[in-house]
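Teaching assistant here, posting this on the class forum so everyone can see the example we discussed in section. The complex has two components, and the goal was to see what a joint structure prediction looks like when all of them are supplied at once.
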Amino acid sequence: MIRIKQLEKKFGKFEVLKGISFDVEPGKITAIVGPNGSGKTTIIKTILGLVKPDDGDILINDKSVLGDFLYRKDIGYMPQTASFPENITVREVIKMICDLRNSRMNLDEHLINKLNLSSELGKQIKNLSGGNKQKVSALISLMFDPSIIILDEPTAGLDPVASSHFKEIILNEKKKGKSIILTSHIMSEIEEMADHIIFLLEGKICFDGSILSLLTYKGESKLEKAIANMMSEVTKWN
Amino acid sequence: MELIGKIIRFELSNAFRSKWIIAYSLFFFLLSYLLLSFETDSAKAAISMMNIVLIVIPLVSIIFGTIFVYNSRDYIEMILCQPIDRTSLFLGLYLGNSIPLAFGFFTGTMSGFLLNGFSFSSTEGFIILLLVGISLTFIFTAIAFYVAIKFSDKAKGLGFSIILWLLLAVVYDGMILLFVYFFQEYPIDNTVLIISLLNPIDLGRILFILNFDVSALMGYTGAMFNKFFGGSLGMILSVFTLVLWFFIPALLGLRGFKKKDF
């Protein structure tokens, strides 16, 4: 269980997060949605400790994780754009991360086949396509069987087949009782996967609840329309 | 500690795989080999070498360090998503970047020296030369790390590093000379000494001169220091200040790194 409490963050004068609070429950996929620059990635990076919040707290299993680092062994993170050292091979990257995590290199053949990565393992990162880099990133985020999985626009660079396989894998992880955070701009994907939705606008939460309750609340049958509806309402308000 | 070791190992294997470290080492090899071959007086060769070392090592270390930090941003982000504390990562990256540089300088210079059959008259000078070169590598890499962490913008950071090098390596001595020229009628000896202590490149030069007794061949600051601190006090003071020059930027860099948002 992840509990975010009154998170605040400024970058210079720009207030990115203005008192964000929400919970991420195990066995559910929580989707964070919102327009570009609404603070989705900042929330994710704060949970990971990449960004230091100005105020607020993050609790994982009732323990504050700010300033700690060992909690990250239970987190698998797939960033928006994968970033690895360029001149080493995929296998070496994996080996390096296993080494840093004090874990034996144990390639999950099933996962590699599912992601169609077996022919890429010996290639250098700089020779990989964008989509294949994303797949490597997916593999790394899942290979240590973490209890928390954080996915920042995971399917953005993937082809339809890989994307569909990846979603299958994630839904399977959810069944195992993992806490999953997902951001995406593809509403059909959110509708298909997420149980819980957090709608973010200019650093504030505008909606926090199940997808069904959002649809009922807005009287729409499609998530995309409900979100658009809510966005135009908030913009009008401002 | 174990994590620092692991990160250093990755960095070293990366550095030794790329060709620049070989080129850097080769440069110092050619320099020491040729200078010693053409100059019959090995003391003079050591001084010529020192003058080049005092310019080249700070420049290469500060530029390499700054570019390294900017280019490794993604890589740093990737590692920070793993269960690793920032102090270990910072120290690992810092040592992983400065050790290959120091190693390249050391092996290059040493092999040139050994191939020429080292004479006892110059051995001491060469040891000091090696120590000063290695110290400057660590100091300027620490400064580079601090600058690159402080400025998020690559162009700004790199520009700042180059200006800093120019100030310390070139402009500083000129300023001291101007200062001495304008205030020659006043008792300014101690002031000049203190000013010299503030520059690690001057300090390196002083360390060398104090051990080589060739102050007449070097700049004004060297002559000053020899006169005042010919004994152990000067040595202790300059080594202490060099250590400070290493620790202050390294600690400031570490502090910045711990607070930085990635």
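For the discussion questions: Chain A touches chain B through 25 residues (CB under 8 Å). The helical segments of chain A are 40-48, 90-100, 109-114, 130-142, 160-175, 187-193, 211-218, 223-237. Think about how each of these relates to the inputs above.
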